[in-house]
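As practice, study what follows.
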Amino acid sequence: MPRISHGHLLRLLGVGFGVAVGFGEVIGSGILRSPSVIAGTVHAFWPIIALWCLGAINALLSANIVVELGTSVPRAGGPYVFAHRAFGDAGGLIVGWTVFSSHSAGSAAASVVFADFLPLAIPATQGHEAAVAVGLQALLYATNIAGLREGRAMQGATSILKALLLFGFVFAAAWLVPSKGAAALTAMPPIGFAALVGAYQLIKGAYTGWDAAIYFSEESVAPSQSLPRAVFIGIAVTTFLYVAVNAMLLHVLGIAGTAASSLPFATVLARVAGSGASLLFAIGGMIIVIGCANANIMLAPRVLFALARDRLLPGVFESVNTGGSPYIAFLLSAVVSMALASTGAFALVFGLIATLSTMAAVIVEISYFVVRWREPELARPYRAILYPWLPALALAIDVVLLVLFAAHDHRGALFAAAMCALCIPLGLLARRARAAAA
């Protein structure tokens, strides 16, 4: 049996891993399906591109805050750590369970998409999608439970392959495929406000995960230097590919063609590879979603680890093996995400990610101002640019977005309100339990 420690994580990670895990977490099945939905609601080239650029600006404004917090408080657990520091158990639980739920649903969704693509390459797997999805997760969880080095290698390899595939697609669409929709570039029909909000909600969800490197700040060799580079480089690479891929899809297929195809990638690839397009698309799609699944699988257990360290979960979830893996937290995460994948219940949670992530972002951004006020002497290796104006702008934008998303998605708003209502008494109970134990 390997020696087990409690609360001891390994410091092995650098900028490369931070970029890989952020890029791998953000770009998943959303880029394969969302362009069609967005083209069907917005109906114009430049507004669609502007919305994707707005998503990047939104992420950069929030990153300006989160990177300061991450380098000031380099502890595993991501946004949960900052909310807990500012608002105690209740605030920590709201953000902690929100991000844990979204990552669990994200890994389940990615594994299901992988299972949907596999029959295109191996027809014998048709009809066994649930088993394939669970099997993929079992493989990825086993790799990560083995140790941090193994998880890092898996994430690095899948993110590099994913980036190469997407860059290759952009090149092929730009130079090898004749355009049939260029005339749609200048079309500017009237666009309803509700359509813009709904489209941006998808884009906001697509950018969710840009902060993945922050979850590993305690495992970074030099977090004060590597975290800012990893986060901002990751957002830059992601933005370029999101904008380039959408521009190429719209240029080649036009607005109507993109909206009419549930998988516009496959339509473009058919013009490049002909009869081999379905196989090419399946292989590319599976690589894209494996990287996303692995990133989510790495993130969720670190939230449970942080909750346990603050005595909001049993101490057993702090257990770390000699490979640097919080393996008990991984096992619980595996049970949750495999159950979501096998039952399809992930669809409910996954559909709420934009609303829930925006709520968590608002709490974290308020936490930033609270920590600034309470702890002015805290060491801050990275200081937010143009404090307090840019951080205040980030908070104002996310508050407005939260209101708009709640008005557009009543189910998401009710779920978020219920989560907050439940976490407040749970936080009070946890505080009383610690006081009684002391």
